Amino acid sequence: MDNEIKSKLNNKYNLSSEDYEMISARIDELRKAIEDVIGFEEKNKLSNNPLIMKNDRNFK
Amino acid sequence: MIEILNKDIFEISELIKKNTISPVDLYNQYSKQIHKYEHKISSFIEIYEDWEEKARVAEKQILNGDYKGPLHGVPIAVKDLIDIKSKVTTAGSKILKNNISNEDADVIKALESSGAIIVGKTQMVEFAFGPHGINSNSEQTKNPWNLKFIPGGSSSGSAAAVASNFSPIAIGSDTGGSIRMPASFCGVTGFKPSYNKLSTNGVFPLSWTLDTIGPIAKSTRDCAIFIQEVCKYQKNHDLDPFKGFNVDMLDNFDAMLPVRLKVGIPTGKYFENIDPEINEVYQNSINLMRDNGAEIVEIDLEWLSLCRPVNVIITMAEAIKIHSKFLENNYSEYTYEVVSRLVAGEALSVQDYLGSLRVMNYFQEKIDEIYNEINIIACPTNPVLPDEIENYSKKNMSNSLKVIGARIPAFTSIFNVTRQPSLSTRAGISKTGLPIGIMFTGKFDQDFGVLQVGNWFEKLNKDINNINPSMN
What we know:
Chain A is mainly alpha-helical and 60 residues long. Chain A has helices spanning 3-12, 17-43.
C-alpha cells in the first residue's frame, strides 16, 4: 500500500492490524486489476464515451 | 393431501387453478417444513406473521373465480435488500437494523399485483458484497446439502431456502454472480436477467452499473413464470417489457428451440482452470446436449477473462461511493469479511473507474459478434466446489479469500459486465454429495432463449434434478 493511500485510510478510519492486513491484500488485488484493465484500454486506444453503454435500458 | 414440497410452481399453479389445492395448503406444508428444518439452515432473517392470513385471502379470491395467474397464492421469499413497505430492510447489516421502508420496491409491487405472497426476508452477505455466503453479523446460513459447507452468496438465504423447500421461489440480486453462485452451490436454479429487465428501484445498491435482480427457484420454468409475471405488472418501464417474449412460451419451450441448437463451449486457460470433478460433470453435460441434437462449437473466449477485473473495479468504486458516509460513522459495525472490500475502494481513481466503464462497453460490443456463430454459451457456474464455513472464520478469512473465495465468481462476474441474461441450473452431484451447476448465457435481451435452453437441459437431466439435499 503506498503512503498516500495509507495516510488517507488512517485519517478516515480506525484500522486494526487485521483490518490493515486484509485491506492491503485487497488493494494489491485491485492494483493488478487496474493495471490489466487500463493497460487494455490504452493498448486498444478506446475513446468511446464511458457513460454510454451499448446494453442499456433505464426506468423512468 | 397432495405433497407439494418437491413440486415446482409450474405444477403447483395448475393444482391451484383447478382448486385441487389452495394457498392455505401451501402455507401449511411450507411452514411445517420451515418449523422442522430452519433452525439447522438459518436461511431467513424474518418470517412474516401475516402469511397465513394472506393465504386465506388468496384462497377466497381463487374460489370466487378471481384467479390472477401462476403466482397467485404462491409463497415467495425476498432477499433482505429489497424494500417492503413498513418492514425492515437490513441488507444483512447491523447498520440498517432499524431501517423501515416507506414504500415497496417496484418488484414487490409487481409481485403483489400477481397475487404472490411475500413470506419473509432471507439472509445474505452484508450489503451483498461477497461470493461465499458468510455473514458474521447473523446466524450463519448453511448449505442444505452439507451443513458444514458454505451456501455461496450473496443471496445465500434465498438459495438455501428454496433448496430446503421452505419456499418454492425466492428473489436474489446479482452484481458478480450473487444469484447464480449460491444457486449452483445449493443445487437450485438461478436466473440473472438482462441488465435492467427488472426494475431495481427500492433495492439497496451495491453497484448501480452492474446490479440485477432475479429469481432463484426449483426449475427454469419457474424462473420464466417469475419473469413473465413481474414484467406483466412492473410499472415505469421505458421499453416494452415483453421484448423478446412470446406469451405462449411456457407451453412451447420445445417448439421454440432452434432446429439445431449451437452451444458455444469456451476454451482458453481461464475457462479451463476448474476443479476436476466440476470438469467431469461439465463434460458429461456437453455430451448429453450433443447426444440430444445440439451442435457443440468450441470458441476461444480467453479475452473475456478481463471482464473479471472490470467487474471488481466498477463494483468497488461504486460501493465506496455508496458506503462512504456509513463507513465514516459506523466503521466498527461492518463485518470483517466485507469492510476490507469496501475500504479498498478508496485506492481507486476517477481514471480507473471511467477506464473500466469504457472497457465494459467494449466487451458488450465484442461479445455480440460471437452470437453469429452460436445460440448460447455453456460453462460451469463456479470453477470450484464450496468449501467449509470454518475456513471463513476471522482467523482464516484472509487465506480462504485468496485460495477459494476469489475464484468463485470467475465466470459469473463476466456476464454482469456484458449485461447478458445468464442462468445456472444443476448439472450433477460431486462424490462428496455437493451439487455442481452449469451456466447458460445468451445475447443481451434474449432472456427467453436462455430460459428455453435451461428448461430443455433440465428435462434431459431430470434424474439429477430428482435428488434432494440431505439437510444434515
